[in-house]
User: Which sequence fits this backbone?
């Protein structure tokens, strides 16, 4: 599973941007939340009540945060909502669009597993490999599996495109899943799945991710302890300073220690969620 933010509306902001609804994106960014710092909450509520971005931005202690940059742009450029989005740091802009891409990817992969389980089927995609055996994470290295290829590949080799304007879709029902889910989101498929200037402008070109990844160097250990504040493992600071953790593995309480390695775009929180089948905060 791809992680796409903890605020609840990150992917919705990205959806508005890619849909060219820049006013909608700005409204979502400037939505009041109890998790916001008091000055930020006061500023966005001021803007919501009065529409005066200049007065609202003056309530902020730090005007270089997301809300401050957007409000400052609106104060300077009026209702140029696209310019307000473009005033954000580029990584922040693409974080929003990538969040929507990841949201769609998650839903497509879920439907794929529901439809085919962990079987490899004709039309699935795999990555061609470089001479050293590493995958080519580019569209030119994508291979569409034929009926005769299926038995030579495992589910760990099957990839799914992060939807974008420069990716190859699977040649099976999964291609339809993308369009179905985008339709459910009231999102024109051509705005994301076909080449266009907005998708390129906000770096929604797409990419490829394995639908199932087995973590490397996976190890587990059961630890016994007594107190809530007992130190169970060495921290990075301990390792840097060469401090050795000495503890006796005893006590009435039991903890599970996991260690593993994941590649880029795979997240430990998702692994723990699947392992525990519960919500990870």
Assistant:
């Amino acid at each position: 599973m791809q992680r796409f933010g903890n605020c609840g509306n990150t992917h919705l902001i990205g959806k508005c941007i890619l849909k060219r609804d820049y006013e909608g994106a700005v409204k979502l960014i400037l939505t009041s939340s109890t998790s916001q710092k008091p000055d930020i909450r006061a500023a966005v509520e001021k803007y919501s009540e009065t529409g005066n971005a200049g007065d609202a931005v003056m309530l902020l202690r730090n005007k270089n945060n997301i809300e401050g940059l957007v409000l400052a742009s609106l104060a300077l450029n009026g209702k140029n909502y696209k310019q307000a989005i473009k005033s954000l740091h580029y990584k922040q802009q693409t974080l929003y669009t990538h969040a929507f891409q990841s949201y769609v990817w998650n839903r497509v992969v879920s439907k794929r597993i529901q439809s085919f389980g962990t079987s490899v089927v004709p039309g699935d995609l795999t990555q061609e490999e470089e001479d050293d055996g590493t995958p080519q994470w580019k569209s030119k290295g994508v291979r569409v599996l034929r009926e005769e290829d299926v038995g030579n590949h495992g589910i760990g080799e099957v990839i799914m495109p992060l939807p974008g304007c420069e990716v190859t879709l699977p040649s099976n029902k999964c291609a339809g899943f993308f369009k179905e889910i985008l339709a459910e989101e009231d999102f024109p498929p051509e705005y994301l799945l076909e080449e266009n200037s907005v998708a390129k402008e906000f770096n929604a070109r797409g990419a490829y991710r394995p639908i199932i990844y087995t973590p490397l160097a996976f190890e587990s250990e059961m630890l016994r302890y007594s107190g809530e504040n007992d130190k169970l493992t060495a921290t990075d600071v301990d390792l840097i300073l060469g401090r050795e953790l000495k503890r006796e593995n005893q006590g009435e309480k039991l903890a599970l220690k996991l260690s593993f390695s994941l590649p880029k775009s795979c997240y430990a929180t998702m692994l723990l969620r699947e392992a525990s089948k519960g919500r990870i905060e």
